[in-house]
């Protein structure tokens, strides 16, 4: 077996909800409209995933704290006309888990190793977000301890 992969650390954020804003009009300013509305009311978005579908519409997935769900849904409904979203749905009982470290952009194996370890532990990934120094994913909250344990087996965590 290969040795553990050194990383800077592991981050966890429990008590999250995933909000999916589906069928949003495509074009500049849509994400800014939704995220600004949330941010101005003090709602922190911990993970944002956006992608286009084959019909030319956008789909955004946002992770927010469970305590902010009702207010976030209300704000997204208020901007629904501007964003022309077709549907908003949510999934509760989620947590974010992330590995971080310097120079992840120079180490292409980090994300794959993380997701492979989670898959071997039968942990389904609900959303993925990455940066040059962090690989994050949203999972079901009841799998958080399992995720922590399997990532500790894969990575050398200080």
Provide an overview of this structure:
The chain is α+β, with helices and mostly antiparallel strands and about 160 residues long. It folds into two domains: about 5-15 and about 95-155, Alpha-Beta Plaits (2-Layer Sandwich), CATH 3.30.70; about 15-90, Alpha-Beta Plaits, CATH 3.30.70. It is built from five helices and eight strands. It has helices spanning about 30-40, 70-80, 80-85, 110-120, 145-155; strands at about 5, 10-25, 45-50, 55-65, 85-100, 125-130, 135-140, 155. Strand 3 and strand 4 (about 55-65) form a beta hairpin. The protein is elongated, with a radius of gyration of 17 Å.
Mean pLDDT value: 92
Strand line-up across the major sheet = 3-4-2-5-7-6
The termini sit apart by 20 Å
Q: Which percent range fits the helix content?
A: 25-40%
| Rg (CA only) | 17 Å
Identify the CATH architecture of the largest domain. 2-Layer Sandwich
The major β-sheet equals:
6 strands, antiparallel
CATH topology of the largest domain: Alpha-Beta Plaits
- Strand portion, in percent? 35-45%
Query: Class of the largest domain in CATH?
Result: Alpha Beta
Low-confidence stretches: none
The geometry reads as elongated
**What is the number of domains?**
2
- H and E string: EEHEEHHEHEEHE
CATH superfamily of the largest domain: ACT domain
Number of DSSP helical runs = 5
Q: Got a strand count?
A: 8
Structural class: alpha+beta
